[in-house]
Design goal:
Blueprint lengths: L2 H8 L13 E6 L2 E6 H4 L6 H5 L14 E3 L6 H10 L7 H11 L2 H8 L2 H14 L5 H14 L6 E8 L3 H13 L7 E4 L8 H13 L4 E6 L14 E7 L2
Parallel strand pairs: 1-3, 4-5
Antiparallel strand pairs: 1-2, 4-7, 6-7
Protein name: KCD14 protein
Length: 243
């Protein structure tokens, strides 16, 4: 069978070579349909997106012969607009940033990282949390404790001890020793060497737990009468609401 007849038979199947395709390309991105040009998709040769359409096609096709990309289609329009006109999106910044990373479009990644939303998350908040020992592990520990206590309950309470300095850490340990409760159920955050305060860290904890889909709130934890320290100096109660 000749190359031309084979191409007619296979149409837009993956086995077709891209140089034989029309310069107009139809895409199915996560169920959203797009039409663009091959040159637009290959605008940044070093990107993963350009690589998908270089040489032999590296994508499957749907039942209509459109190239299928298994990514959120909603945000691809912003990627496409940038490729067409160099317009940096001003909406859905966090989600578009994830897609820019996936498609490895370096110029767009760098411009998005200069936006207040991404800059604040990557440079300010994330770098602060990197200085809080075992932060991510403690978030997961909080969730495990809350889930273990959720049986036949509307809410689960998790006690958190937050200390900013080594001195406070020592005082917190003394306080823990005098608490009439299971010390293994108290999740300890800190100390850290950075400007943000305890209230900033508490906000971060709430933000990151909520990002995992949980409904959560917190308040100072008031310990039993006769407690040697002001309990709200260190201890907070996070409430997970299940229904």
């Amino acid at each position: 069978m000749s190359i031309s007849s084979e191409h007619k038979l296979l149409g837009k199947q993956v086995t077709s070579s891209l140089h034989m395709l029309s310069p107009i390309v139809e895409l199915n991105v996560g169920g959203e349909m797009y039409t663009t040009t091959l040159s637009t998709l290959k605008k940044h040769p070093g990107s993963k997106l350009a690589e998908m359409f270089t040489g032999q096609p590296k994508l499957r096709t749907d039942s209509e012969g459109r190239f299928f990309i298994d990514r959120p289609g909603t945000y691809f329009k912003y990627i496409l607009e940038y490729l067409r006109s160099n317009q940096v999106p001003t909406q859905c910044i966090q989600d578009v940033y994830k897609e820019a990373l996936f498609y490895d479009i370096e110029p767009l990644i760098k411009q998005l990282e200069d936006s207040p939303q991404i800059f604040g998350e990557l440079v300010a908040r994330r770098q602060f949390l990197a200085r809080v020992p075992n932060y991510s592990e403690n978030i997961e520990l909080m969730i495990r404790i809350a889930r273990a206590e959720a049986v036949a309950s509307r809410q689960s309470g998790v006690i958190v001890c937050v200390v900013r300095t080594e001195e406070d850490a020592a005082r917190c340990q003394d306080a823990l020793n005098s608490l009439d409760m299971d010390k293994k159920s108290v999740v300890k955050f800190g100390p850290w060497k950075a400007v943000p305060s305890i209230s900033d860290l508490l906000d971060c904890i709430q933000m990151d737990v909520e990002a995992k889909g949980y409904k959560i709130s917190f308040q100072p934890h008031v310990a039993e009468k006769g407690f040697r320290f002001k309990s709200h100096d260190f201890f907070y109660k996070f409430l997970f609401t299940w229904w």
